[in-house]
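Board notes (copied after class):
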Amino acid sequence: STSGGVHAGQATGVAHEEYLKVLLGFLGITDVEFVRAQGLGYGDEVRSKALSDAHQHISQGLFSAA
């Protein structure tokens, strides 16, 4: 998930994730992991770092699942 601010650990930042987990659970998908890119509205440097970190997290997850 992405945001212009930083919402990790706050109810406003995870409400949609819980909804998606329940929805996907009804479809039989129970192993769900979210990758967050936060602070995208704080300027180019912060945005670039957040996206780089998210890409790295995704790559690590893909290769560790193999």
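Comment from the instructor: Residues 11-65 form one domain. The CA atoms of residues 39 and 46 lie 7 Å apart.
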